[in-house]
TrEMBL record:
CDD domains per UniProt: PH_SWAP-70
The UniProt record lists the keyword Transcription: no
This protein's name: Switch-associated protein 70
Location (main, coarse): membrane
Compositionally biased tracts (Basic and acidic residues): 480-495
Described purpose of this protein according to its UniProt entry: Phosphatidylinositol 3,4,5-trisphosphate-dependent guanine nucleotide exchange factor (GEF) which, independently of RAS, transduces signals from tyrosine kinase receptors to RAC. It also mediates signaling of membrane ruffling. Regulates the actin cytoskeleton as an effector or adapter protein in response to agonist stimulated phosphatidylinositol (3,4)-bisphosphate production and cell protrusion.
Pfam families xref list: EF-hand_SWAP70_N (PF25530), PH (PF00169)
Region (Disordered): 474-508
Length: 575
């Protein structure tokens, strides 16, 4: 069953095609026609008054996308059954949207191939509107296309194109992808027919969910005759047609969790047999060779396992895994950016605090210098006053004043010492702020090391993928060795067959020699019997009155009756 997001994508193109003014709104009359066509294709009973009742409060003016979506969900998408033809829906929406966006005169591919590229875009595009395809999915599509046509992939050229897209900060839409393929940006030098075949192969695999296809022989259920059919394997069923043009379908094999596929021994002159056992009936099929037979058995078995596990088709599961991988990498990147942003903000705050503390320290130093100058000036003034007072007053009074001033000086020294301690504490705070800044830089370096480790893990994953690719190559080489072993066994069997044929020829010559010897002896016996029979008949018929035969040399030795009787006896002996 297709997801609602996949069904909405072609409908979105049809809605935007009806939006002539490009203001996001479509008239209700056009929406009625669109809704009727959707109900017809999706095999849903159409309610003509539902649209009017749904928009009865908005009798004037067109309807926007947000206004049409509740009606589309309630009256159409919620009633979809699994038996509709998704390809017909694509064709209807393509017919509405393509003529306004594509001019096929300057494209190198046909209209049918353009439609298939559009369907492939809808399959690979993100579920966000307006629809676009990311560079990873574009690379996946181009790699599949080049593998289908048997051409080598140009990594450097695609990297340059991806760099151009990253500079422009944009992703391709459907029409830009069609133009990219139709103008041969990556497919220069590829024959048009070959390119069309490659597009069709990718379309069958991704859009039509064709897991495997090809010609095989099928045994009939009634007449038990073998007929060649074109088979197409999907996840839940296996259909077969008269030919690969898919015009006349002859039947369908439904696959479920109760089905199984088994190999059969050769019989009735058919080789490479296997059987698909279903609940109601079984189907006997003959492949062209052992490799094809094993591939079909493996593919059908994988489909049955997926059905039992409740999984989707391989290409849809692969697409979902790629999307999850991109979302996970995007989340990690956003988390990394947030951490970097927080570290940067913390660094800026600490830098600001450090600058403020440095400024306060400078101001405190300036205030200390001013206070020191003021204190020195006050001290000088006091000394001058002290000298004047010492000269004017008596020694005792001068001594008392002097003691008082000494006490004052001591208090001032104490205050100066306290200020010095405050400056030392401020210096320690400043040093602590510098240590915090150094710690922030170390945290930033640790974060950079973590990022490098993540890049190294990604490189390790790539190496693992390369190892998997190497294992696949080893498996292919092993299959080639098995093929060579089978070829050697075939040659040995051919040599044994030739020796048997030579022995049979020798026996045939011996039999012919014996037969010739037997015929010679038989002819000698027949001559002896003939002479004796002739003599007996001559003696027996010598008294008959039958007229004798007259020859050119006179009367014959036998009459006509004797000759007929001798001829009959000779035939019997000869036989």
């Amino acid at each position: 069953m297709l997801s609602r997001d996949e069904i909405l994508k072609p409908i979105w193109y049809a809605f935007t095609a009806l939006d002539v003014d490009r203001n996001g709104k479509v008239s209700k009359s056009q929406l009625k026609v669109l809704s009727h066509n959707l109900c017809t294709i999706l095999k849903i009973p159409h309610n003509t008054s539902a649209l009017e009742e749904h928009f009865k409060d908005d009798d004037e003016g067109p309807v926007s996308t947000q206004g049409y979506m509740p009606y589309l969900n309630m009256f159409i998408l919620d009633k979809i059954q699994a038996n509709f033809d998704f390809n017909e829906l694509n064709k209807m929406c393509w017919t509405l949207s393509a003529p306004k966006r594509i001019s096929s005169k300057h494209l190198l591919i046909s209209g049918a191939d353009t439609f298939k590229v559009w369907c492939i875009f809808n399959f690979l595009s993100e579920d966000k509107y307006p629809l676009h395809i990311v560079t990873e999915e574009l690379e996946y599509f181009l790699r599949r296309l080049f593998a289908a046509v048997g051409c080598s992939w140009n990594e450097d050229r695609f990297e340059d194109y991806k760099m151009q897209l990253s500079v422009k900060k944009k992703n391709l839409n459907a029409w830009e992808l069609i133009e990219l393929i139709g103008l041969g940006h990556f497919t220069k030098g590829i024959n048009t027919q070959t390119l069309s075949m490659g597009i069709n192969v990718v379309f069958q695999e991704l859009v039509m969910d064709v897991i495997k296809q090809g010609y095989m022989m099928k045994k009939g259920h009634k007449r038990k005759n073998w007929t060649e059919r074109w088979f197409e394997l999907h996840l839940n069923y296996m259909s077969y047609y008269v030919s690969e043009d898919l015009i006349e379908q002859k039947g369908c094999i439904s696959l479920d969790r109760n089905c199984c596929v088994e190999s059969l021994p050769d019989k009735d002159g058919k080789k490479n047999l296997f059987i698909i056992k279903c609940v109601e009936k079984s189907f006997e099929i003959s492949a062209s060779d052992k490799k094809t037979k094993q591939e079909w058995i493996q593919a059908i078995q994988d489909c049955i396992v997926r059905i039992r596990q409740g999984l989707s088709s391989p290409h849809r599961e692969s697409r979902q895994k790629r999307r999850e991988m991109r979302n996970r990498l995007k989340a990690e990147q956003e988390m990394m950016e947030n951490r970097m942003r927080k570290l940067q903000l913390a660094n800026e705050r600490k830098q600001a605090q450090l600058e403020a503390m440095t400024k306060n320290l400078q101001e405190a130093s300036m205030r200390g210098d001013l206070e020191e100058q003021r204190r020195l000036q006050t001290q000088n003034e006091l000394l001058d006053q002290y000298r004047r007072d010492l000269e004017q007053e008596k020694m005792v009074k001068a001594r008392m004043q002097m003691e008082e001033k000494v006490v004052e000086k001591a208090s001032e020294v104490e205050q100066y010492w306290q200020r010095t301690q405050e400056l030392e504490e401020m210096y320690s705070q400043l040093k602590k702020a510098l240590d915090d800044e150094r710690q922030a830089k170390e945290d930033e370096e640790a974060l950079r090391i973590l990022q490098a480790r993540l890049l190294q893990e990604e490189a390790n994953k790539r190496l693992e993928l390369e190892k998997i690719h190497q294992q696949q190559q080893e498996i292919l080489s092993q299959s080639q060795k098995e093929k060579e072993e089978l070829e050697r066994e075939r040659r040995e069997k051919e040599s044994a067959l030739q020796a048997a044929q030579e022995q049979l020829e020798s026996l045939r010559r011996q039999r012919e020699g014996a037969q010739e010897e037997y015929m010679c002896k038989l002819s000698e016996v027949a001559d002896t019997i003939s002479k004796r029979t002739r003599l007996m008949f001559f003696m027996y018929f010598s008294g008959t009155k039958s007229p004798a035969k007259i020859t050119n040399w006179g009367p014959a030795a036998f009459t006509e009756t004797e000759l007929n009787e001798l001829e009959r006896i000779w035939q019997e002996n000869n036989n």
